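Reproducibility note. Readers wishing to regenerate the assembly model reported in the main text can use the exact inputs given here. Chain order matters: entities are listed in the order in which they were concatenated for prediction.
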Amino acid sequence: MMEDSKKLEEFQAKIDADVKIEPKDWMPDKYRQNLIRQISQHAHSEIIGMQPEGNWLTRAPSLRSKKILMAKIQDEAGHGLYLYCAAETLGVKREQFLKWLHDGVAKYSSVFNYPTLSWADIGAIGWLVDGAAIVNQVSLQGTSYGPYSRAMVKICKEESFHQRQGYEIIVNLANGTKEQKQMAQDALDRWWWPSIMMFGPHDADSAHSNQSLKWKIKRESNDELRQRYIDKTIHQGEHLGLTFPDENLSWNDKTNHYDYSPIDWDEFWNVVKGNGPGNKARLAHHTKAHNDGAWVREAAIAFQEKQKLKSKIA
Amino acid sequence: MSKDNQGDLWEVFIQPKAGRPHKHVGSLHAYDKEMAMKSARDLYTRRQEGVGIWIVKAEEIISSQAADAESFFDPSDDKIYRHPTFYEIPDGIKHI
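Running the prediction on these inputs yields the following structure tokens for the assembly.
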């Protein structure tokens, strides 16, 4: 016990001095568990997030937009893989992460449980959902766990393409016919609040926040990040003549931030608990794709074993 | 090993430009060398990040232990004469 408290002290000193923690370094078990939960949740979000976008791949309005959307979805897969690898350095196997996802033990960002009803939703996902994700991920570049931080740096480099492609879709619709502008407005109406909820519960109600900040797993609180996202996004929508679905949204000269209405947390928790419009379908789709691929993995494993045998004989 | 797995873990190193050293960028899972190479290309060079790729099976890497770093790197601690700043040069001497 004495030794543990000394180790803990040294650990905290490293964190305070902004020294990154690496996989083989000593770390408190809670730090490890916290990271396993957060990084895998982040990875799952990237992978599940491919589904609402994939929904429009065959119906993209032009070859240009189809190519771009395909590249974006491929990036999401890549981001998921960077993050799974970072999470695995904590001693959990990839297969286990997938099992936790399929068993409903691990969560992913609730925002991906909402449906993409029109092409404008692809724009809204890039502009708002990726826009919110970027605010969070830029902050996480400074996370204390080395592999997570390095994955974030790579992901941030690629994310701004995502946000811009989404915004471009919204710009084109907003500058189009009356019906097209209405599509953009409708997408904003449906995605605005879910994107705000992506930052999670208020600081006072966030189960893991304090410890995460002390260990620098997170660098800024949910509410700080949420406010930054709101502050930078309003102008982008108003510039296009779009209206945010919040009558209390107004600039506050005293705080130098936007004020906004209270968040509907019942809606948030309802979706987190699995009752959102798409929870069951998203998970079922992922599970099916994984199970349908079992024969490919089986063949690959058989091939791998044969190669190993060959090299032994030679 | 379970019959359903994601393959071995490989570490990936990318050479950003000809003449530059390869640098570690991350890891991936693959069942053989060829698949590892193709996945590394698709995963780590989607935006012309490199002109060369090295891949090493993670289990083949031999690494020093962070916990032993102090004693392990001790031999270089007391040899400051290996640094140019150790030597005194008279004022006015240039290009040295």
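We highlight two features of this model. The beta strands of chain A are 250-252, 257-259. Residues 3 and 9 of chain A are 10 Å apart (CA to CA).
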